[in-house]
Amino acid sequence: MAASNRSTDDHWRFFPYDEPYPNQDEAMSRIAEALSEERNVLLEGAPGTGKTLSALVPALEHAREEDKTVVITTNVHQQMRQFVADARAITRTEPIRAVVFKGKASMCHIDVDYRECQTLRDTTRDLVEKQEEVDELNARQQDLLDELQAGSKGAGEARQAVMDELDTLESELEEFEDGNVCDHYRANLTRDTGAFFSWLFDDVRTPQDVYDYADREGLCGYELLKEGMEGVDLVVCNYHHLLDPLIREQFFRWLGREPSEVITVFDEAHNVESAARDHATRTLTENTLSAALSELEDVDDSRAVSAENVLRAFSDALCETYEEALAFGEREQVGENWYDLSIANDDRRDDLTMRFLDAYEGRGISTEVELALQLGKRLDEEYEEAYKQGETTSRKECQTLQAAAFVSAWMDEGGDLGQHPMCSVRRDGGSDEIYGRAELYTCIPREVTQELFDQVSATVLMSATLRPFDVTQDVLGLEDPVTMAYGLAYPEENRRTLTVDVPPLFSSERSNPETQELVAETLADVLRFTPGNTLVFFPSYAEAERYYERLRGRAGETSLWLDGSDVDTEQARQRFVASDDGALFTSLWGTLSEGVSFDGDDARTVAVVGVPYPHLSERMEAVQAAYDRAYPGNEAGWRYGVEIPTIRKTRQALGRVIRSPDDFGVRLLLDRRYTRESRDMGRYGVRGSFPTEERTEFVDVGPSKAKFAILNFFTDHDAYTGDPPRP
User: Fold this and answer.
1) Strand partners, 461
2) SS3 assignment for 582-609
3) Which one of 52, 80, 115, 154 has the fewest CB atoms closer than 10 angstroms to its CB?
4) How many angstroms separate the CA atoms of 421 and 349, rounded?
5) pLDDT in the model for residue 11
6) Dihedral of CA 249/251/253/256: which sign?
7) How far apart are CA 375 and CA 204, in angstroms?
8) Mean pLDDT for all residues in the chain
């Protein structure tokens, strides 16, 4: 769209284009009304409905009028780039102060971790402040010397007092100079940084832009960004700045805002559930416990006995628990990735807790854990001071504090609804030794998200796959949100969605040679009759590889590409889109099913083979059980934990094609569970789980008829460069 010439008194003065997409003006008006009422919003919009600007424009309008800050966040890199592009377009219409923020790890010039950075920052600030005091005293003593030489009677005594204080400060300053400091941050504090902020707000700068500028000037761009965030109109950031409670508290402080003065916008919001679950989950490894016990050996403090007592008992219980849980022959299956073991019980606390209680001998777990926490905090302060003073070259982490905090949480919260105690093991590098990990797995993410949504002024959550809204509302803890959904705004004749009646690909059926051959024949037809690239999704990488191998040698001129857990996915994607007639085989649970566009000729057809239910692990079973307990009576465990996330994944995959008004393509769902025949399959028939307007476009076809439907569609769109293939 062309840049807008609208005047600044126009209602949507932040809108950067001449005309909105279909339904976009309505969406913006409804969101504006919701924000004025401080209500949350759930916005589902298909690709091309302008979701980002639909949320961003009214949010910026409201924030400008009410003196608030808008924070827009995503966990997808491509969307982060799109946010920057949209923000830059907005600045051409209505100047805004925008900051794109990333974590310290990606912006540090000297490659230290967060705790070291924090200590270096504090030490450097103390040094600079001490130097300023010395400079002030030097100036004062010089003034007094001038007065003394001019004959002032009281100047000598006053100057001597200043000189005594100056000697003391200079001695302290020498100690600071021997400590650890950050020269980049020191430059921030001692140089005029006005030029940086003029440059920063002259446009919307990316974190890489800021890093490069700061690196050239010898400054710390991360700290300058934090300083420049106060009172800005817009911040673009990653999920963890809002979903991690500790980071969020600091983040709002950097903004100079109370939570009630912040409007949050979540893109790809169907991912908030899993991201919140990851942020809430806590772990403690056997190695950390061993390090804590070694740390305590040299501690001269009476509390060390209590700390050693409780941590050793927990460590011993952890080892005994995973050794007992490993079934015959199971140890050989353990590799370098964490391997989950079942320790939960239906009628009592988990096996690790029970074994810990049996093994523990002391004055009381709560008492001794509290003493361990007190000691850990003291040791942590000592490590901090040693690093400040330059006695150590790195900021040592207190293992006792980490271990004691986890054991405290494990005992206090391990039996709570939504907390699932787990034990896992992994192999130590290339050796035969294994070691264990205790984990409190958070099953219900609203424990993280509800507090955020209750604190801020309002939140807009947007995605192409948020429905059913009642599930999203329950899972994330939203109270009475405004809901709106807008389907594909492009011509319906530009797309065809085929549901292919191959046998339902349950795990038992997937190994049937006849079924495999039928699916392979159908896919071969799909590749042959697609004039361009085909994207094929499977429930797993193993299934993708199975059909990749079956179709090699029978795909005609089509080039085949295989994605996998050990494949450079981005490289495979680039090779695929560079081809004229290729097929990429991948997993629906990989990184290509969402947040990646396959525009125009990049992919003309997308196929989803089977219903990609997640692996029914203990974690998935724990999530289902937690939802069943939280929402009894309506199969919430299956619906919230399995069915809806699976359908969202499928809908995301289908959305990889048809990304613009002129784009066209075919979408296929290969499995009887997508067809009308699935009505008699109970909860395994998934057709009814799709939104009404989507499933009304489903066209049921037999496997042998799919090629005719594809041929007719692409012939109607003059997509074949030569004669169409002959059926």
Assistant:
1) 42, 266
2) EEEEEECCCCCCCCCCCCHHHCCEEEEE
3) 154
4) 9
5) 66
6) negative
7) 46
8) 91
Radius of gyration for the alpha carbons in the chain, expressed in angstroms and rounded: 31
What single DSSP character describes residue 17?
B
Least confident span in 18-22, 303-307, 583-587, 646-650:
18-22
- Residue tagged 């009214």 (tokens): 58
Backbone phi and psi for residue 610, each to the nearest 5 degrees, phi listed first = 85, 175
pTM value is 0.89
Q: Which amino acid is at 254?
A: W
Tell me the C-alpha distance between 530 and 517, whole Å: 20
Q: Given this model, what pLDDT does residue 178 score? A: 65
Is 60 exceeded by the pLDDT of residue 262?
yes
Burial grade of 608 (CB within 10 A; 0-12, 13-18, 19 or more): buried
Q: How far is CA 218 from the centre of its chain?
A: 31
Q: What's the one-letter identity of residue 135? A: D
Q: What's 627-661 look like in SS3?
A: HHHHCCCCCHHHHHHHHHHHHHHHHHHHCCCCCCC
> Which one-letter DSSP state was computed for residue 612?
-
Which residues, listed in sequence order, are joined to residue 583 by a DSSP beta bridge?
Answer: 534, 560
Strands 458-463 and 41-45 turn out to be: parallel
The edge-to-edge listing of strands for the beta sheet with 582-587 is 559-562, 582-587, 534-538, 605-609, 665-670, 495-500, 698-701
Question: Given this model, what pLDDT does residue 6 score?
Answer: 45
